[in-house]
TrEMBL record:
ATP binds at residues 10-15, 125, 134-135, 196. This is Adenylate kinase. AMP binds at residues 31, 36, 57-59, 83-86, 90, 157, 168. Belongs to the adenylate kinase family. It catalyses: AMP + ATP = 2 ADP. Zn(2+) binds at residues 128, 131, 147, 150. Keywords: ATP-binding, Cytoplasm, Kinase, Metal-binding, Nucleotide biosynthesis, Nucleotide-binding, Transferase, Zinc. Consists of three domains, a large central CORE domain and two small peripheral domains, NMPbind and LID, which undergo movements during catalysis. The LID domain closes over the site of phosphoryl transfer upon ATP binding. Assembling and dissambling the active center during each catalytic cycle provides an effective means to prevent ATP hydrolysis. Some bacteria have evolved a zinc-coordinating structure that stabilizes the LID domain. SUPFAM superfamilies: P-loop containing nucleoside triphosphate hydrolases (SSF52540). Its EC number is 2.7.4.3. It comes from Candidatus Iainarchaeum sp. NCBIfam families: adk, PRK00279.1-3, PRK14527.1.
Length: 215
C-alpha cells in the first residue's frame, strides 16, 4: 500500500509515519528530512534551501520534486510520503510522477489537531542532529538533550520556534489544506483525529489501513 500523510506540522505525522513503516512494511519518505540532509551535508541544494527552511517558507516545487524522484527511484516497495505534496501544484506533480513510475496511490491519511495543541507540541519537540529521531511531549528522550538511539544531541529545530510555527500554520491552511478536497474528490481521503494519545491514534490508523491492505 502506498500512502500520503497530510496534516499541519505538529500533529505527530513523523511519529505516525514511523509506526506505519514498521506495521505495514512501507518506507517513510519525508521531504523535510531529505532537505535537512542536504543542509547538513552542505550540498549545493542544501546551501540554497537552508535560509528558506529556517524562515518556515516553502522550497521551490522543482527542487523538492527532484530530491523526491531520486529517493523513490532508490527502492522498490511501498512508501509513506510525509511532507509532499504541500500544495495543489505538487499534488498534480505527484500524479504525473506516479503515472510515470506506474505506481498507484492507495490512500491519503489526514491527521488534524487544534492550533493551541499544535503550538504546545512543537515548542516541546526536539530532533536528534545525527539520526533525525524526533522526541516530543508523548515520547521524550530518557536523558534530556540526548538521543536514546545514537546518543546524538537533541535540539529545537530552527523552524519550531514559536514565531516560525505561526507562519508555518498559516502557510499550511492557505497552501496545503486545499489538498484535502483534491484527494477527497479522488475518493482517497481518510481523516484521523490527532488530538488524542499516540496509542489511540496508532490503533485507529492500524484499523483504518488494514482495510486498504486487504482491498
Ligand atoms: P517538514 O519537516 O515536513 O515540516 O519540512 C520542513 C521544511 O522543509 C518546510 O518548512 C519547508 O521549508 C521544506 N519542505 C519540506 N517539504 C516540502 C515540500 N513538499 N515543498 C516545499 N518545501 C518543503
Amino acid at each position: 500500500m502506498n500512502l500520503v500523510l497530510l496534516g499541519p506540522p505538529g500533529t505527530g505525522k513523523g511519529t505516525i509515519a514511523k509506526f506505519i513503516e514498521t506495521t505495514f512494511k512501507c518506507t517513510h519518505v519525508s521531504t523535510g528530512d531529505l532537505l535537512r540532509d542536504e543542509v547538513a551535508k552542505k550540498t549545493e541544494i542544501g546551501l540554497k534551501v537552508e535560509p528558506i527552511m529556517k524562515d518556515g517558507k516553502l522550497v521551490s516545487d522543482s527542487i523538492v520534486l527532484d530530491i523526491l524522484k531520486k529517493r523513490l527511484n532508490e527502492f522498490n516497495g511501498y512508501f509513506i510520503l510525509d511532507g509532499f505534496p504541500r500544495n495543489l501544484a505538487q499534488g498534480k506533480m505527484l500524479d504525473h510522477l506516479l503515472d510515470e513510475l506506474k505506481i498507484s496511490l492507495d490512500v491519503v491519511l489526514e491527521i488534524d489537531s487544534p492550533v493551541d495543541v499544535i503550538v504546545k507540541r512543537l515548542s516541546a519537540r526536539r530532533q536528534c542532529v545525527d539520526c533525525k529521531r524526533i522526541y516530543g511531549l508523548d515520547v521524550p528522550s530518557k536523558n534530556e538533550g540526548l538521543c536514546d538511539d545514537c546518543g546524538g544531541k537533541t535540539i529545537l529545530r530552527a523552524d519550531d520556534k514559536p514565531e516560525i510555527v505561526e507562519k508555518r500554520l498559516n502557510l499550511y491552511n492557505e497552501t496545503t489544506k486545499p489538498l484535502s478536497d483534491f484527494y477527497n474528490e479522488k475518493g482517497l481521503l481518510v481523516k484521523v483525529d490527532g488530538n488524542r494519545t499516540l496509542q489511540e491514534i496508532f490503533s485507529e490508523v492500524e484499523k483504518t489501513l488494514k482495510k486498504f491492505e486487504s482491498d
